[in-house]
C-alpha cells in the first residue's frame, strides 16, 4: 500500500513536531528548576521582591526594614531551600519573617517579634520563622518548668516561654527550630513515667476520710482556677490505714504536707478565736503572752499589714494593730488559759492628773506664805505669821526653812491646792512661771514645755568684699517638765520628775569676746513616793545675780571734790529660789474623772469671780483634803509642821 504524501499532510506533521518540541522545552526546566542566590550590594527591598517572585508569595515589608544585602551561593536552590535561605539572610540582618494566612509573609524587625501576630498554631514550620505553640502538660507543673525552658530559648530576646497556670500549659514563642525543640523537650519532661508513688502512714486520722478531703480540696482548686491540675491520684488503703500518692514529686510534697496537718489527735485539734481588746494594746499584749510559759519556744515572725505573729509550740498568736485584736489558734486547754490571762491584762488603766506650780521667789521673802484656807461653811482664815515656830525644837519661822538652803529641799503638803495657789500669787516677790496640768496613763510619760527659740551666733565669716556672714543656730529656752507616774498598791504614786528652767542671762549679749549669749539653766531630776492628792515640794535651786548702777547730775558730777555730792553708785545683789509644787491625783473611774473636771472648772470660775483675796468658796471640792470644819486649825498646823519639818536645832 502506498501512502501518498501530500503537502497538507507534511504541514500537519511539522505542526505536531513543533508542539512536541514546545512541550519538551517547558518540561525540561521544571525537572531541572533552580534558583540562584547571588546578590551583591542589593537593596534589601529588591532582595525581598526577588524572593517574592521566586516563592510565589505576597510579602509585606515594614517601614523600618532598610539596608543592603550581599550574599553569594554557587549552587542552585529549590523552593524549600530558597525559603530557608531567605529567612536566614533576613535573620543575619536583624529582621524576622512571620507567616500570615492566605500565603502572605510579613517582614519586621526581629525585636518586634514578641508583639507581632504569630503564625497559626496548626501550621507546621521550621527554620527561622517566628511561631507560637501551646503545650499542655499532664504530669508536671508548668510553673516549675517554664523558668528552666527559658534558658534554652533565644538569647537575643525574640522568643519567650510563659506558663498558663489555669490550664497547666506552656506558651512558647520564638524561631520555629527553637520552638520545635522546646516542644519536644516539654513532652519528654512530661512523660508519665516521671511520676512516682509515695505512701503516707496515718497515726490518728482515717485514710478514707483524708483521701476524701484531699480529693475535694484539689477538685475545688482546679475548678477555681478553671483548668487542669498536674496528674495526681490519691488512694486510701484502709487495711493499713495508709494513703498512696501517685504524681510528680512536687505535687507529692504538697499533698504530704496537707495530710500531716490532717493527721492529728482529736483532743489536740486547735481552734481559732479573735479577741478584741478594750483597753490594752494588741502588740504589747502579744509580747506578754509570748513569754507566758517558759517551756514554750518563741519564734516571732513579721506578718505585714500592721500585724505581727508569735508562733509557739501548740499555739499561734497574731496581733492586728489596725483593729487592736488578737487572733489566737491553740488547743482548747491552752486557749482557756490564754483567755484568762488576757481578761486580767485587758483592764482599764488608771490615770494620773499631774498638777504643778513652778514659782520663782526673790530673796526668800516670798516664803512668807499667807496660806488661805477656805471651808464649806463660808468662813476664811489667813495664817500670815511666817515667823511662828513651825515644828517642836526648831527655832525660827517659815522663812528660816529656805533662807540658808543652797541645795535641794523636798517636803510634802496635803492642804488645799487652790489655797496654795492663792497664797503664792498674793506675794509680790513671787513669780509664777507656769501652772501646767497634765492627764496621763499609769507608767506613761507626760511632758510639758513652753519657751522660745533663741538665736545663737555660732560663727562669723568675712568675704573678700568685706561682707560679713554670720552662722546662727537656735536653742530652746523656757520651762520643761517631764513626769512619769507609777501607781503602786493603794493610792501611792511613784513620781519620776525631770524639770528644767532656762533663760538668757541679763546683759549676756554684751560680750567682749563676742562669744554669744549666756544661758541660765536650772534642772531637777528626782524620784519621790507620794500619796494621791498630796503635794510634793522641790526647792532650794538658788540663782544669784548682781548688778551695779550709777546715777549723776550732768556737768555737776565733774566738779572737783564737790562732784561726789552729785553722783552716786549702787550695788544690788538678789537671789532667786526656784520651787516646784507638784501634786498627782489618781483617777481610776469615769466618775472620778468627772468630779476632778468639776473641781477644776469650779476653781477657774471662783478665781475669775473673786474680788478679795480672802473670799471664801462655798464649793465643797475646794475644802482641805480629809478635814472637817471643827478641825481646820489643828489640821493646818500639822500640815505646816510636816511641810517644814527638820530634826534638831
Automatic annotation (TrEMBL):
It is found in: Cell outer membrane. It holds the Pfam family Secretin. Residues 132-192, 197-267, 272-351 form the NolW-like domain. One of its GO terms (cellular component) is cell outer membrane. It comes from the Bacteria. InterPro entries: Bact_Secretion_Sys_Channel, GspD-like_N0, GspD/PilQ, NolW-like, NolW-like_sf, T2SS/T3SS_dom, T2SS_GspD, T2SS_GspD_CS. Keywords: Cell outer membrane, Membrane, Protein transport, Signal, Transmembrane, Transmembrane beta strand, Transport. One of its GO terms (biological process) is protein secretion by the type II secretion system. Residues 424-588 form the Type II/III secretion system secretin-like domain. The keyword Transport applies. Residues 38-107 form the GspD-like N0 domain. Belongs to the bacterial secretin family. GSP D subfamily. This is Type II secretion system protein GspD. It comes from Serratia proteamaculans. The gene is gspD.
Amino acid at each position: 500500500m502506498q501512502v501518498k504524501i501530500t503537502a497538507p499532510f507534511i504541514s500537519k506533521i511539522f505542526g505536531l513536531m513543533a508542539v512536541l518540541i514546545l512541550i519538551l522545552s517547558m518540561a525540561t526546566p521544571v525537572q531541572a528548576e533552580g534558583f540562584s542566590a547571588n546578590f551583591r550590594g542589593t537593596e534589601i527591598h529588591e532582595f525581598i521582591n526577588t524572593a517574592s517572585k521566586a516563592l510565589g508569595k505576597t510579602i509585606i515589608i515594614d517601614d523600618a526594614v532598610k539596608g543592603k544585602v550581599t550574599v553569594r551561593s554557587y549552587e542552585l536552590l529549590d523552593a524549600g531551600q530558597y525559603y530557608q535561605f531567605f529567612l536566614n539572610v533576613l535573620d543575619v540582618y536583624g529582621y524576622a519573617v512571620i507567616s500570615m494566612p492566605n500565603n502572605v509573609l510579613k517582614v519586621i524587625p526581629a525585636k518586634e517579634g514578641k508583639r507581632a501576630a504569630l503564625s497559626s498554631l496548626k501550621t507546621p514550620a521550621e527554620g527561622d520563622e517566628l511561631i507560637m505553640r501551646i503545650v499542655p502538660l499532664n504530669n508536671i507543673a508548668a510553673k516549675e518548668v517554664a523558668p528552666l525552658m527559658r534558658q534554652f530559648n533565644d538569647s537575643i530576646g525574640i522568643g519567650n516561654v510563659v506558663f498558663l497556670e489555669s490550664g497547666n500549659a506552656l506558651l512558647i514563642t520564638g524561631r520555629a527550630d527553637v520552638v520545635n525543640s522546646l516542644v519536644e523537650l516539654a513532652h519528654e519532661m512530661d512523660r508519665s513515667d516521671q511520676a512516682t508513688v509515695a505512701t503516707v502512714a496515718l497515726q490518728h486520722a482515717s485514710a478514707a476520710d483524708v483521701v476524701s478531703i484531699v480529693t475535694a480540696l484539689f477538685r475545688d482548686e482546679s475548678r477555681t482556677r478553671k483548668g487542669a491540675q498536674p496528674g495526681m491520684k490519691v488512694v486510701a488503703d484502709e487495711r493499713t490505714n495508709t494513703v498512696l500518692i501517685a504524681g510528680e514529686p512536687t505535687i507529692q510534697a504538697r499533698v504530704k504536707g496537707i495530710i500531716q496537718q490532717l493527721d492529728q489527735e482529736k483532743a489536740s485539734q486547735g481552734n481559732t478565736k479573735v479577741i478584741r481588746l478594750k483597753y490594752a494594746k494588741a502588740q504589747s499584749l502579744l509580747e506578754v503572752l509570748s513569754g507566758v510559759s517558759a517551756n514554750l519556744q518563741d519564734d516571732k515572725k513579721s506578718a505585714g499589714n500592721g500585724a505581727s505573729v508569735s508562733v509557739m509550740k501548740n499555739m499561734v498568736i497574731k496581733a492586728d494593730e489596725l483593729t487592736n485584736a488578737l487572733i489566737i489558734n491553740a488547743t482548747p486547754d491552752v486557749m482557756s488559759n490564754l483567755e484568762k490571762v488576757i481578761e486580767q491584762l485587758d483592764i482599764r488603766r488608771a490615770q494620773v492628773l499631774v498638777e504643778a506650780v513652778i514659782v520663782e521667789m526673790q530673796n526668800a521673802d516670798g516664803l512668807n506664805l499667807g496660806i488661805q484656807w477656805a471651808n464649806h461653811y463660808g468662813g476664811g482664815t489667813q495664817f500670815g505669821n511666817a515667823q511662828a515656830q513651825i515644828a517642836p525644837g526648831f527655832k525660827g519661822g517659815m522663812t528660816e526653812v529656805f533662807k540658808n538652803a543652797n541645795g535641794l529641799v523636798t517636803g510634802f503638803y496635803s492642804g488645799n491646792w487652790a489655797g496654795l495657789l492663792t497664797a503664792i500669787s498674793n506675794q509680790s516677790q513671787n513669780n509664777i512661771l507656769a501652772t501646767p496640768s497634765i492627764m496621763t496613763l499609769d507608767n506613761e510619760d507626760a511632758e510639758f514645755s513652753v519657751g522660745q527659740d533663741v538665736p545663737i551666733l555660732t560663727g562669723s565669716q568675712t568675704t573678700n568684699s568685706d561682707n560679713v556672714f554670720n552662722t546662727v543656730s537656735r536653742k530652746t529656752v523656757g520651762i520643761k517638765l517631764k513626769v512619769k507616774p507609777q501607781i503602786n498598791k493603794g493610792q501611792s504614786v511613784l513620781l519620776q520628775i525631770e524639770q528644767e528652767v532656762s533663760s538668757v542671762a541679763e546683759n549676756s549679749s554684751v560680750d567682749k569676746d563676742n562669744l554669744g549669749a549666756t544661758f541660765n539653766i536650772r534642772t531637777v531630776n528626782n524620784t519621790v513616793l507620794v500619796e494621791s492628792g498630796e503635794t510634793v515640794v522641790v526647792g532650794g535651786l538658788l540663782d544669784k545675780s548682781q548688778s551695779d548702777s550709777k546715777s549723776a547730775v550732768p556737768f555737776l558730777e565733774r566738779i572737783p571734790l564737790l562732784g561726789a555730792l552729785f553722783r552716786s553708785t549702787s550695788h544690788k545683789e538678789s537671789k532667786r529660789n526656784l520651787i516646784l509644787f507638784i501634786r498627782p491625783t489618781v483617777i481610776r473611774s469615769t466618775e472620778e474623772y468627772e468630779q476632778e473636771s468639776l473641781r477644776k472648772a469650779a476653781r477657774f470660775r471662783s478665781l475669775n469671780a473673786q474680788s478679795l483675796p480672802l473670799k471664801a468658796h462655798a464649793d465643797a471640792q475646794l475644802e482641805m483634803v480629809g478635814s472637817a470644819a471643827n478641825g481646820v486649825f489643828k489640821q493646818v498646823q500639822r500640815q505646816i509642821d510636816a511641810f517644814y519639818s527638820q530634826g534638831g536645832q
